[in-house]
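Board notes (copied after class):
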Amino acid sequence: MTKMLASVNGGDEAEIALAGGADIVDLKDPAAGALGAVAIDVIRQTMGTVAGRKPVSAVAGDLPMEPDTIRAKVEEIAATGVDYVKIGFFPSADAVACAEALASLAARTRLIGVLFADLQPDLGLLAVLARHGFHGAMLDTAKKDGRRLLDHLPPDQLHGFVDECRELGLKVGLAGSLEAPDIPRLLPMLPDFLGFRGALCDQSQREGAIELEAVRQIRELIPDERPAGTASSVDYRLLAARGYSPGAVDPSLGTDKIFVRDFVLPVQIGAYSFEHGHTQKVRFDVVADVLRVTHAPEDMRHVFSYDIIMDGIRTIVARGHVQLSEALAEQVAALVLEDPRVMQVRVRVEKLELGPGGVGVEIERKRASEQAHSARHHGIAPADSLFYGGGQKGSSS
């Protein structure tokens, strides 16, 4: 399960984070940079406040990439007994040497190497971290200028980072001015933790104090390991982890149609030889029928985000060449139906460069229970539509 990491500046904020349900209490000084370190006595005091209720991490500071400097600071922080120490790896020719200098310490302390999405991170460092015994790696942003992690790296590249960490045996975290709407976009990647600071503060000002209600709202967007039977108001893709099922929703609430229209991307697609080795423009139209969970949606806890659809399409396209429009449409439909609230989805894939009009396919797919219901009442499942321009014609490959 993905855990929630809440960055705090000391014991008082740690208590708020714990009351709001944070899984990891992370110590940092927001006024001292992206990874500003708090004083050692603040770490010790906060450790006493938390008293083992949740794991505690601490950042080592925005340090120069000097092996001796970094090792000395990390050793000092590790001596406080924190569960994790986070070390920033800024672009430097000495980054590998810094990782090597921490190898012996990594054998007894869980170290997290932090790369920065807005500083052209060298993902080759992940293998170095793994080789020298680091516990995990995470992506953050170095410049707190209002731009978020997803402003610097698209979902398909973040998927690559997460997958690479997994292959290397590293725990993986994502952070970087994350906001509530980012959560449903990142959860499908299954990171081990998501890190927050600004989103927990008044008016999202990271140097302000964190607020209990803000912590709770973020917590409610991240499925946690609650005991069976515990009530929850969260309604996202991993809701099955909390026992969510479509049958638990009041049917009188009905469904909403969430759509993405005229979404055009360059795609490697086609069965003909002349279509290989380059991209062509493809237009996607997707309409999902989504179960409502409340009469009065108020925030991201109550909606299905259209960003999930667009991110999913981008990720599928980034995997490489697809032979058939039908195959591409099926992949998009399957991705949308992963959310247990989606009852059916209509996907239209249209190639725009093969003639005076578009050519492609439109499919409609339902959740298995809905498909069975339709078959019983109509005796046949909905047919796919092949089209050329405004009418149906031939193959869509």
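Comment from the instructor: The chain has two domains: 3-220, 243-388. Residues 155-167 form the longest helix (13 residues).
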